[in-house]
Design goal:
Blueprint (H helix, E strand, L loop, with lengths): L1 H32 L3 H9 L5 H12 L14 H24 L4 H10 L3 H11 L1 H17 L2 H7 L9 H11 L2 H26 L24 E11 L2 E12 L3 E6 L7 H6 L18 E4 L10 H8 L6 H4 L15 H14 L4 E5 L7 H16 L3 E5 L3 H7 L2 E6 L2 E3 L4 H6 L6
Parallel strand pairs: 3-6, 3-7, 4-5, 5-6
Antiparallel strand pairs: 1-2, 7-8
Amino acid sequence: MASIVVTTLLTSGSATLLASAIGIPLGAKCARRGGLDGLRVLVRTLYGLPPVVVGVLVYLVLSNRGPLSELDLLFTVPAMILAQTLLVLPLIWGGTWSAFDAITNDHREALDVLGLEAAQRLRIEVGLVWRGVLNGVALGFGRAIAEVGSVLMVGGNIAGQTRVLTTSIVLETSRGDLGAAVTQGGLLLVIALAAMFTIEGVRLMRPRNGSAWTSPETPGSLAVAHQGHAWATINVERDGVNVLDLEAIEVRGGEILVVMGASGAGKSTLPRAMAGLLPDVDGLPVKRGPGGVGRVAQNPVMLTSHAVAEIELVDPARLGLLEDVGLVDVAMRQAAVLSGGERQRVSLARALALQPSALILDEFTSGLDLSTTLVVEEVVRRVAKEGAVVVLATHDLAQARRLADRRLLLAAGRSVHEDSEMAAMMLGEVQG
């Protein structure tokens, strides 16, 4: 009995791990890409893939006339693992795909800007929706451990070698030993129950508050110099409506360009376009990742559990930036309990950890009081003084006056001349 249990766990566990190694990255990639409704329907159709069909296919591939006959794997545990992997892969692929769909566009854009390697990005995405990913893996394991048809066909139910609990139950039933069959069935349920309790325990885990943290020295340089960039046109159309229709737009290294406009004028779309986050607009000619574009979105998001982890995601040597933006006291506080203003400053510190050559800011102080706003504005001035491009979208007239080296005024997606009556209204200047 012990060998049967070991073979059961080896076969089902290995198949679940292999299917997870394939299905989780596929789920993440499909969710990232979007627009794959046909493929999603196909994957969900394969949820009901008959085990005997998988068994026949694997048998044909591994048999004497099959393309893999030289491996001599038929009626072995590896053959059973292969069959179960193919059987549970659609469940894990589709289940994790649904989990990754919960990642917001704001999170995806934050990850895009960081320029992470594929493996690191996948790890962060799994961390954002790990409970849903575990549910997908649990579905796969549940089907694997309860499966009988395919492993019976390709494993042969050989005593001491390929016999698992499900095939043993079938054998004992055919012999008329119903007592042994019921006992083994109960044992199978206990194993499945223990596995699901383990998965559920992990899924319900709550992140703990971080321990005390001492800020290291602040990095000397915040940014790297960039010569600037010019666009002959920036045109963004959504659902037949021109969101942006601009000509001769220029950003220059060492200056702060302030973008202003009423709600719906396009002042949030333009920074996204400049950061290279819109597929139909070429962004700044800088690489992603260190030395590239740093961005603080209007609705900033955190990618990890606390502020320290956010900086370590980019460069642990830049942890001193948290002191620059006044976050030392909350450096290890869980992201879920941070205020909106604290998340904005975490996002700014994460952007600066890249030591960017272009810093793109969208209403980056909307959640801050005046004294804290002045502190982070001084940090932004330092970035510009070091020669980087700085683009700031804001509705705060006072902030615009404090920071702007140059202004770009927008109305209905078009630029407005500073001498016009519309510009005077937008800037709150008295006419007459």
